[in-house]
Amino acid sequence: MTTPNITSELTSENIPTEPKWEPSALIRCDRCGDASQAYTRATKGDFELVLCGHHTRKHELALASDGWTLDIRLDVLEEQAAKYKQVASDDDNF
Ligand SMILES: [Zn+2]
Q1: Which of 41, 43, 46, 88 has the fewest CB atoms within 10 Å, i.e. the most exposed one?
Q2: Residue 34 Cα, ligand 1 centroid: separation in angstroms?
Q3: What distance in angstroms lies between residue 54's CA and the mean position of ligand 1's atoms?
């Protein structure tokens, strides 16, 4: 009797994917200028737009329906907001 050779090597982890776009404090919203950090990259052909959280929410449907590819990283914005909240509540205890 032979034991079946069960392998669990077939996972989706080895499939190459495009690197995620990473927001940076140096990348500012194309609409707000220096006022806001960009959290979304929209691309269509040779064109690229970067948008802050506010302008992402305002324009994402229009851009998507116009054929733009959206790389939305509002998760990063939420992470940063959570950290600021943490800092703010730490200050309350002072
Ligand atoms: Zn903006």
Answers
A1: 46
A2: 9
A3: 6
